[in-house]
């Protein structure tokens, strides 16, 4: 089976076209939450966004290219949720900063209905898994760079592994907190995540 084309055909240049594509992508997120990946298709999207199917295909070759765009948009939002990692420097209270990043991410994900749907889709869809891996690698690089800025002096391999653990453990426990029916349980999960990160990073960062 030939590989699917997941790259947008072109970017809209005129402001009206950009506004139309923004509306299409916003509606795509809504439909993804309503219908799931299997139920989502370009015909329904065109109808609900009030545009022609040809207008969508002018920019996206198939529904998977649209979903890739949504995954990339989601990761851009996630980077905003954790704040400006690059602003941290030696001497900053890294424990407090880590706690605020966890709280910020959880709050942002809680307000985004498409977050959990896209994350689940990336776990089961070969078309999206590679995109998620690319974005996770960027997140890990950001974390590693921040740890160095805060004074971590471990050799590169250990630094990379620590950054991977931070991202993997944080993602899993935040997912559990988002699925918790009881807000108190979600709070306990986030509290345990903070404690785990403090214990993981404490031996490597100056107080």
Automatic annotation (TrEMBL):
Superkingdom: Bacteria
Keyword list, A-Z: DNA-binding, Transcription, Transcription regulation
Membrane-spanning segments: none
Known DNA-binding region: 41-60
Domain HTH tetR-type: 18-78
GO molecular function ontology, one term from the record: transcription cis-regulatory region binding
Protein name: TetR/AcrR family transcriptional regulator
Organism from which the protein derives: Sphingomonas ursincola
């Amino acid at each position: 089976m030939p590989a699917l084309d997941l790259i947008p055909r072109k970017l809209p240049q005129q402001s009206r076209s950009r506004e139309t594509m923004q509306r299409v992508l916003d509606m795509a997120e809504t439909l993804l939450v309503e219908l799931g990946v299997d139920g989502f298709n370009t015909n329904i999207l065109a109808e609900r966004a009030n545009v022609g199917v040809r207008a969508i295909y002018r920019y996206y070759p198939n529904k998977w290219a649209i979903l890739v765009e949504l995954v990339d948009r989601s990761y851009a939002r996630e980077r905003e949720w954790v704040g400006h990692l690059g602003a941290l420097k030696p001497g900053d209270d890294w424990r407090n900063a880590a706690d605020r990043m966890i709280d910020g991410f959880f709050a942002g994900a809680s307000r985004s209905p498409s977050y959990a749907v896209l994350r689940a889709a990336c776990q089961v869809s070969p078309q999206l898994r590679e995109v998620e891996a690319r974005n996770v690698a960027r997140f890990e690089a950001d974390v590693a760079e921040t740890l160095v800025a805060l004074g971590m002096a471990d050799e590169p391999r250990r630094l990379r592994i620590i950054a991977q653990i931070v991202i993997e453990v944080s993602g899993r426990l935040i997912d559990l907190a988002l699925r918790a029916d009881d807000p108190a349980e979600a709070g306990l999960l986030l509290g345990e995540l903070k404690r785990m990160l403090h214990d993981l990073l404490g031996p490597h960062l100056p107080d």
